[in-house]
Amino acid sequence: MVLSRRAVESRDSIRSVTSFLAGMQAAADDPDALDFTFGNPHEPALPGLVDAMRAQLEPRSVDWFAYKTSEREAQEAVAEGLRGELGLDFEHDDIAMTQGAFGAIQLAFALLADAGDEVVIPVPGWFCYAPMLHAADLVPVGAPLAPVDFSLDVTEIERAITSRTRIVVVNSPANPTGRVYPKETWDALAQVLDDASRRHGRRIWLLSDEPYRRIRFDGIGFASPAGSYPWTVVDYSYGKVLLAPGQRLGYLAISPLLEPAERTTLREAATPVQLAIGWGFPDALMQYSVPALEGVSIDLAELTRKRDRMYGSLQSAGYTLTKPEGTFYLWGRAPGGDAAAFCGALAERGVYLMPGTLFDQPAHFRISLTATMETIERALPALEEANA
Q1: 3 state DSSP class of 49
Q2: To the nearest whole percent, how much of the chain has pLDDT over 70?
Q3: What is the set of domains in the chain, with CATH numbers?
Q4: Are 259 and 54 in contact (CB under 8 A)?
Q5: pLDDT band at residue 71, thresholds of 50, 70 and 90?
Q6: Per-residue pLDDT reduced to its tens digit, 250-300
Q7: Using CA atoms, how far apart are residues 294 and 292, in angstroms rounded to an integer?
Q8: Phi, psi of 343 (to 5 degrees)
Q9: Cis peptide before 225 (omega within 30 of 0)
Q10: Could you tell me which residues come within 8 angstroms of residue 172 by beta carbon, excluding any fewer than 6 positions away?
Protein backbone atom coordinates (compact mmCIF):
# COMPACT_ATOMS: atom_id res chain seq x y z
CA MET A 1 0.00 0.00 0.00
CA VAL A 2 1.46 3.36 -1.03
CA LEU A 3 -0.32 5.65 1.43
CA SER A 4 -0.34 5.53 5.19
CA ARG A 5 -3.59 4.76 6.94
CA ARG A 6 -3.60 8.34 8.22
CA ALA A 7 -3.28 9.67 4.67
CA VAL A 8 -6.11 7.47 3.39
CA GLU A 9 -8.45 8.44 6.21
CA SER A 10 -7.62 12.14 5.83
CA ARG A 11 -8.13 12.00 2.06
CA ASP A 12 -11.41 10.15 2.33
CA SER A 13 -12.84 12.35 5.07
CA ILE A 14 -12.36 15.51 3.00
CA ARG A 15 -13.13 14.02 -0.40
CA SER A 16 -16.36 15.98 -0.70
CA VAL A 17 -14.37 19.22 -0.38
CA THR A 18 -11.62 18.29 -2.81
CA SER A 19 -14.19 17.07 -5.32
CA PHE A 20 -16.09 20.33 -4.95
CA LEU A 21 -12.88 22.31 -5.51
CA ALA A 22 -12.17 20.34 -8.67
CA GLY A 23 -15.68 21.08 -9.90
CA MET A 24 -15.19 24.80 -9.31
CA GLN A 25 -12.91 25.12 -12.34
CA ALA A 26 -15.86 26.35 -14.40
CA ALA A 27 -16.29 29.28 -12.02
CA ALA A 28 -12.57 30.01 -12.11
CA ASP A 29 -12.67 30.16 -15.91
CA ASP A 30 -15.78 32.36 -16.06
CA PRO A 31 -15.12 36.08 -15.46
CA ASP A 32 -18.87 36.61 -14.94
CA ALA A 33 -19.24 33.86 -12.33
CA LEU A 34 -21.15 34.89 -9.20
CA ASP A 35 -19.11 33.08 -6.55
CA PHE A 36 -20.49 32.66 -3.01
CA THR A 37 -18.51 29.57 -2.05
CA PHE A 38 -15.43 30.24 0.09
CA GLY A 39 -14.75 33.24 2.31
CA ASN A 40 -12.24 34.77 -0.08
CA PRO A 41 -11.79 38.50 -0.74
CA HIS A 42 -13.64 39.93 -3.74
CA GLU A 43 -12.26 43.44 -3.35
CA PRO A 44 -8.78 44.98 -2.86
CA ALA A 45 -6.98 44.23 0.41
CA LEU A 46 -7.73 46.38 3.43
CA PRO A 47 -5.47 49.45 3.50
CA GLY A 48 -4.72 48.82 7.17
CA LEU A 49 -3.37 45.36 6.36
CA VAL A 50 -1.18 46.64 3.54
CA ASP A 51 0.08 49.57 5.62
CA ALA A 52 0.94 47.34 8.58
CA MET A 53 2.93 44.95 6.42
CA ARG A 54 4.60 47.72 4.43
CA ALA A 55 5.77 49.38 7.66
CA GLN A 56 7.64 46.21 8.64
CA LEU A 57 9.08 45.31 5.25
CA GLU A 58 12.33 47.27 5.47
CA PRO A 59 14.82 45.32 7.64
CA ARG A 60 15.90 47.06 10.85
CA SER A 61 18.58 44.56 11.80
CA VAL A 62 20.60 41.76 10.22
CA ASP A 63 18.31 39.17 11.83
CA TRP A 64 15.05 40.85 10.78
CA PHE A 65 14.11 37.85 8.64
CA ALA A 66 15.96 35.21 10.67
CA TYR A 67 14.21 32.19 12.18
CA LYS A 68 11.36 33.26 14.44
CA THR A 69 9.47 31.48 17.18
CA SER A 70 6.73 33.46 18.98
CA GLU A 71 7.79 37.11 18.98
CA ARG A 72 7.37 38.81 22.37
CA GLU A 73 5.82 41.99 20.94
CA ALA A 74 3.21 39.96 19.04
CA GLN A 75 2.40 37.90 22.14
CA GLU A 76 1.98 41.02 24.25
CA ALA A 77 -0.33 42.65 21.70
CA VAL A 78 -2.49 39.51 21.55
CA ALA A 79 -2.65 39.16 25.35
CA GLU A 80 -3.66 42.80 25.70
CA GLY A 81 -6.37 42.36 23.08
CA LEU A 82 -7.71 39.25 24.79
CA ARG A 83 -7.81 40.95 28.17
CA GLY A 84 -9.95 43.69 26.66
CA GLU A 85 -12.22 41.37 24.67
CA LEU A 86 -12.74 38.50 27.09
CA GLY A 87 -12.08 40.13 30.45
CA LEU A 88 -9.62 37.39 31.40
CA ASP A 89 -6.09 37.95 32.67
CA PHE A 90 -4.09 36.56 29.75
CA GLU A 91 -0.32 37.00 29.86
CA HIS A 92 2.06 37.00 26.92
CA ASP A 93 3.40 33.55 27.83
CA ASP A 94 -0.11 32.14 27.38
CA ILE A 95 0.10 32.91 23.65
CA ALA A 96 1.71 30.71 20.99
CA MET A 97 1.83 32.47 17.61
CA THR A 98 0.87 30.09 14.79
CA GLN A 99 0.30 29.73 11.07
CA GLY A 100 -3.35 30.77 11.21
CA ALA A 101 -6.02 28.79 13.04
CA PHE A 102 -4.92 25.67 11.16
CA GLY A 103 -1.57 25.84 12.93
CA ALA A 104 -3.19 26.58 16.29
CA ILE A 105 -5.59 23.64 16.01
CA GLN A 106 -2.78 21.31 14.94
CA LEU A 107 -0.72 22.51 17.92
CA ALA A 108 -3.62 21.90 20.33
CA PHE A 109 -4.07 18.35 19.06
CA ALA A 110 -0.33 17.66 19.36
CA LEU A 111 -0.10 19.13 22.87
CA LEU A 112 -3.12 17.45 24.39
CA ALA A 113 -3.99 14.17 22.66
CA ASP A 114 -2.36 10.81 22.04
CA ALA A 115 -2.86 8.43 19.12
CA GLY A 116 -6.25 6.77 19.34
CA ASP A 117 -7.83 9.42 21.53
CA GLU A 118 -11.30 10.63 20.57
CA VAL A 119 -12.10 14.25 19.81
CA VAL A 120 -15.74 15.41 19.76
CA ILE A 121 -16.53 17.85 16.92
CA PRO A 122 -19.74 19.72 16.03
CA VAL A 123 -21.99 18.60 13.16
CA PRO A 124 -22.45 20.62 11.06
CA GLY A 125 -19.03 22.11 11.54
CA TRP A 126 -15.84 23.07 9.73
CA PHE A 127 -14.96 20.38 7.22
CA CYS A 128 -11.25 20.29 8.13
CA TYR A 129 -11.65 19.07 11.71
CA ALA A 130 -12.01 15.40 10.74
CA PRO A 131 -9.12 15.21 8.24
CA MET A 132 -6.82 17.04 10.63
CA LEU A 133 -7.71 14.56 13.35
CA HIS A 134 -7.12 11.57 11.08
CA ALA A 135 -3.72 12.99 10.09
CA ALA A 136 -2.85 13.20 13.81
CA ASP A 137 -3.96 9.59 14.46
CA LEU A 138 -6.95 10.80 16.44
CA VAL A 139 -10.58 9.73 16.15
CA PRO A 140 -13.28 12.30 15.25
CA VAL A 141 -16.65 11.78 16.94
CA GLY A 142 -19.54 13.95 15.74
CA ALA A 143 -21.97 15.65 18.10
CA PRO A 144 -25.05 17.04 16.30
CA LEU A 145 -26.08 20.62 16.85
CA ALA A 146 -29.75 21.25 17.64
CA PRO A 147 -31.68 20.34 14.45
CA VAL A 148 -33.85 23.47 14.12
CA ASP A 149 -31.82 26.46 15.32
CA PHE A 150 -28.34 24.86 15.30
CA SER A 151 -27.63 25.88 18.89
CA LEU A 152 -24.98 23.92 20.75
CA ASP A 153 -26.61 20.78 22.16
CA VAL A 154 -24.78 20.03 25.40
CA THR A 155 -26.76 16.80 25.81
CA GLU A 156 -25.45 15.52 22.46
CA ILE A 157 -21.88 16.35 23.49
CA GLU A 158 -22.40 14.49 26.76
CA ARG A 159 -23.74 11.52 24.80
CA ALA A 160 -20.67 11.54 22.52
CA ILE A 161 -18.16 11.41 25.37
CA THR A 162 -16.52 8.06 26.20
CA SER A 163 -13.56 6.94 28.29
CA ARG A 164 -11.35 7.69 25.24
CA THR A 165 -12.47 11.31 24.84
CA ARG A 166 -9.62 13.79 25.25
CA ILE A 167 -10.82 16.99 23.57
CA VAL A 168 -14.16 18.59 22.74
CA VAL A 169 -14.09 21.19 19.94
CA VAL A 170 -16.57 24.07 19.93
CA ASN A 171 -16.89 26.90 17.41
CA SER A 172 -18.52 30.27 18.06
CA PRO A 173 -19.41 32.26 16.02
CA ALA A 174 -20.06 29.02 14.20
CA ASN A 175 -19.17 28.01 10.66
CA PRO A 176 -21.38 27.30 8.73
CA THR A 177 -24.45 28.37 10.75
CA GLY A 178 -23.44 31.82 12.02
CA ARG A 179 -24.69 31.07 15.54
CA VAL A 180 -23.08 32.75 18.57
CA TYR A 181 -23.43 30.83 21.83
CA PRO A 182 -24.04 32.55 25.20
CA LYS A 183 -22.15 32.13 28.45
CA GLU A 184 -24.97 30.01 29.87
CA THR A 185 -24.17 27.37 27.25
CA TRP A 186 -20.50 27.35 28.23
CA ASP A 187 -21.36 27.07 31.92
CA ALA A 188 -23.56 24.05 31.21
CA LEU A 189 -20.89 22.46 29.04
CA ALA A 190 -18.23 23.08 31.70
CA GLN A 191 -20.29 21.13 34.21
CA VAL A 192 -20.71 18.23 31.77
CA LEU A 193 -16.99 18.12 30.99
CA ASP A 194 -15.99 18.36 34.64
CA ASP A 195 -18.35 15.54 35.58
CA ALA A 196 -17.19 13.36 32.66
CA SER A 197 -13.53 14.00 33.49
CA ARG A 198 -14.05 12.78 37.06
CA ARG A 199 -16.15 9.84 35.90
CA HIS A 200 -13.58 8.59 33.41
CA GLY A 201 -10.51 9.47 35.45
CA ARG A 202 -8.85 11.73 32.87
CA ARG A 203 -9.18 15.39 32.04
CA ILE A 204 -11.22 16.33 28.97
CA TRP A 205 -9.94 19.51 27.32
CA LEU A 206 -11.95 22.08 25.42
CA LEU A 207 -10.68 23.65 22.20
CA SER A 208 -12.57 26.85 21.45
CA ASP A 209 -12.26 27.62 17.74
CA GLU A 210 -12.78 31.40 17.55
CA PRO A 211 -11.55 32.72 14.17
CA TYR A 212 -14.81 34.69 13.65
CA ARG A 213 -14.88 36.13 17.18
CA ARG A 214 -14.67 39.74 15.99
CA ILE A 215 -17.27 39.34 13.23
CA ARG A 216 -20.66 39.67 14.91
CA PHE A 217 -23.92 41.46 14.05
CA ASP A 218 -26.58 43.50 15.83
CA GLY A 219 -24.47 44.26 18.89
CA ILE A 220 -24.44 40.61 19.95
CA GLY A 221 -21.88 40.07 22.70
CA PHE A 222 -19.28 37.34 22.88
CA ALA A 223 -18.39 34.93 25.66
CA SER A 224 -15.53 32.45 25.40
CA PRO A 225 -15.65 29.10 27.18
CA ALA A 226 -12.18 30.00 28.43
CA GLY A 227 -14.02 32.02 31.09
CA SER A 228 -16.18 29.07 32.16
CA TYR A 229 -13.89 26.04 31.95
CA PRO A 230 -10.23 26.36 32.97
CA TRP A 231 -9.09 23.47 30.79
CA THR A 232 -9.70 25.47 27.62
CA VAL A 233 -7.35 26.53 24.84
CA VAL A 234 -8.46 29.11 22.27
CA ASP A 235 -7.44 29.22 18.63
CA TYR A 236 -7.74 32.34 16.51
CA SER A 237 -6.99 33.44 12.95
CA TYR A 238 -6.52 37.00 11.70
CA GLY A 239 -7.41 35.83 8.18
CA LYS A 240 -11.16 36.26 8.75
CA VAL A 241 -11.37 39.76 10.23
CA LEU A 242 -8.71 40.96 7.76
CA LEU A 243 -10.30 39.00 4.89
CA ALA A 244 -6.81 37.81 3.97
CA PRO A 245 -6.77 34.03 4.48
CA GLY A 246 -3.60 33.71 2.42
CA GLN A 247 -1.59 35.59 5.05
CA ARG A 248 -1.17 32.89 7.65
CA LEU A 249 -1.36 34.46 11.10
CA GLY A 250 -3.04 33.15 14.24
CA TYR A 251 -2.43 31.93 17.76
CA LEU A 252 -3.28 29.39 20.43
CA ALA A 253 -4.07 30.87 23.86
CA ILE A 254 -4.22 29.09 27.21
CA SER A 255 -7.06 29.99 29.55
CA PRO A 256 -5.61 31.99 32.45
CA LEU A 257 -8.06 30.19 34.75
CA LEU A 258 -6.01 27.01 34.37
CA GLU A 259 -4.24 25.76 37.49
CA PRO A 260 -0.72 27.32 37.58
CA ALA A 261 1.31 24.11 37.27
CA GLU A 262 -0.68 22.89 34.25
CA ARG A 263 -0.56 26.37 32.73
CA THR A 264 3.23 26.41 33.06
CA THR A 265 3.51 22.94 31.55
CA LEU A 266 1.55 24.00 28.46
CA ARG A 267 3.48 27.26 28.12
CA GLU A 268 6.83 25.45 28.22
CA ALA A 269 5.74 22.75 25.78
CA ALA A 270 4.33 25.00 23.06
CA THR A 271 7.58 26.05 21.36
CA PRO A 272 9.21 22.57 21.36
CA VAL A 273 6.05 21.01 19.94
CA GLN A 274 5.77 23.73 17.30
CA LEU A 275 9.33 22.92 16.25
CA ALA A 276 8.50 19.22 16.15
CA ILE A 277 5.40 19.59 13.95
CA GLY A 278 7.27 21.59 11.32
CA TRP A 279 8.24 25.05 12.56
CA GLY A 280 4.64 26.08 13.08
CA PHE A 281 5.26 29.80 13.60
CA PRO A 282 4.02 32.73 11.47
CA ASP A 283 6.46 34.47 9.17
CA ALA A 284 8.50 37.31 10.63
CA LEU A 285 6.70 40.02 8.67
CA MET A 286 3.28 38.93 9.91
CA GLN A 287 4.40 38.75 13.54
CA TYR A 288 5.93 42.23 13.40
CA SER A 289 2.60 43.47 12.05
CA VAL A 290 0.43 42.10 14.88
CA PRO A 291 0.32 45.24 17.09
CA ALA A 292 -0.99 47.30 14.16
CA LEU A 293 -3.31 44.55 12.91
CA GLU A 294 -5.08 44.24 16.26
CA GLY A 295 -7.09 47.33 15.28
CA VAL A 296 -7.80 46.46 11.63
CA SER A 297 -11.12 44.95 10.52
CA ILE A 298 -13.33 44.46 7.52
CA ASP A 299 -16.23 46.90 7.31
CA LEU A 300 -18.78 45.30 9.63
CA ALA A 301 -21.47 47.85 8.73
CA GLU A 302 -21.15 46.96 5.05
CA LEU A 303 -21.10 43.25 5.91
CA THR A 304 -24.30 43.76 7.89
CA ARG A 305 -25.92 45.41 4.86
CA LYS A 306 -24.95 42.42 2.74
CA ARG A 307 -26.35 40.01 5.30
CA ASP A 308 -29.61 41.92 5.59
CA ARG A 309 -30.04 42.22 1.83
CA MET A 310 -29.40 38.54 1.16
CA TYR A 311 -31.28 37.24 4.20
CA GLY A 312 -34.29 39.52 3.68
CA SER A 313 -34.64 38.73 -0.02
CA LEU A 314 -34.29 34.97 0.37
CA GLN A 315 -36.62 34.87 3.35
CA SER A 316 -39.22 36.77 1.32
CA ALA A 317 -38.73 34.24 -1.46
CA GLY A 318 -39.71 31.45 0.92
CA TYR A 319 -36.35 30.05 1.97
CA THR A 320 -35.82 28.55 5.43
CA LEU A 321 -32.73 30.30 6.80
CA THR A 322 -30.70 30.64 9.98
CA LYS A 323 -30.11 34.37 10.48
CA PRO A 324 -26.37 34.70 11.12
CA GLU A 325 -25.38 36.33 14.39
CA GLY A 326 -21.72 36.23 13.36
CA THR A 327 -19.28 35.03 10.67
CA PHE A 328 -19.77 36.04 7.03
CA TYR A 329 -21.96 33.10 6.01
CA LEU A 330 -25.67 32.51 5.48
CA TRP A 331 -26.96 28.99 6.14
CA GLY A 332 -30.20 27.77 4.61
CA ARG A 333 -32.24 24.74 3.64
CA ALA A 334 -32.26 23.83 -0.03
CA PRO A 335 -35.66 23.79 -1.78
CA GLY A 336 -36.70 20.16 -2.06
CA GLY A 337 -34.08 19.11 0.48
CA ASP A 338 -31.39 18.22 -2.09
CA ALA A 339 -28.56 20.73 -1.80
CA ALA A 340 -26.39 19.10 -4.45
CA ALA A 341 -29.15 19.33 -7.07
CA PHE A 342 -30.09 22.85 -5.97
CA CYS A 343 -26.50 24.14 -6.12
CA GLY A 344 -25.89 22.32 -9.39
CA ALA A 345 -28.89 23.98 -11.02
CA LEU A 346 -27.73 27.41 -9.85
CA ALA A 347 -24.20 26.73 -11.10
CA GLU A 348 -25.64 26.24 -14.59
CA ARG A 349 -26.85 29.84 -14.30
CA GLY A 350 -23.46 31.05 -13.13
CA VAL A 351 -24.32 31.30 -9.40
CA TYR A 352 -22.07 29.20 -7.18
CA LEU A 353 -23.02 28.24 -3.62
CA MET A 354 -21.51 25.69 -1.26
CA PRO A 355 -23.70 22.59 -0.80
CA GLY A 356 -24.20 21.30 2.73
CA THR A 357 -22.79 17.92 1.71
CA LEU A 358 -19.39 19.41 2.60
CA PHE A 359 -20.68 19.75 6.18
CA ASP A 360 -22.49 16.38 6.34
CA GLN A 361 -25.79 18.24 5.83
CA PRO A 362 -27.08 17.25 2.37
CA ALA A 363 -30.29 19.29 2.71
CA HIS A 364 -28.59 22.64 3.36
CA PHE A 365 -26.41 25.19 1.60
CA ARG A 366 -23.99 27.96 2.60
CA ILE A 367 -23.57 31.40 1.05
CA SER A 368 -20.42 33.45 1.64
CA LEU A 369 -21.21 37.12 2.16
CA THR A 370 -17.69 38.25 1.25
CA ALA A 371 -18.94 38.75 -2.32
CA THR A 372 -19.55 42.33 -3.38
CA MET A 373 -22.96 43.95 -3.10
CA GLU A 374 -23.03 44.14 -6.89
CA THR A 375 -22.53 40.36 -7.05
CA ILE A 376 -25.33 39.85 -4.55
CA GLU A 377 -27.74 42.01 -6.57
CA ARG A 378 -26.89 40.14 -9.77
CA ALA A 379 -27.41 36.75 -8.12
CA LEU A 380 -30.66 37.44 -6.28
CA PRO A 381 -33.03 36.98 -9.26
CA ALA A 382 -31.67 33.48 -9.92
CA LEU A 383 -31.81 32.60 -6.22
CA GLU A 384 -35.36 33.84 -5.87
CA GLU A 385 -36.50 31.98 -8.99
CA ALA A 386 -34.88 28.76 -7.73
CA ASN A 387 -37.43 28.63 -4.92
CA ALA A 388 -40.42 29.75 -6.99
Answers
A1: helix
A2: 100
A3: 5-46+298-386 (3.90.1150.10), 60-293 (3.40.640.10)
A4: no
A5: very high
A6: 999 999 999 999 999 999 999 999 999 999 999 999 999 999 999 999 999
A7: 6
A8: -70, -35
A9: no
A10: 152, 179, 180, 181, 208, 210, 213, 222, 326
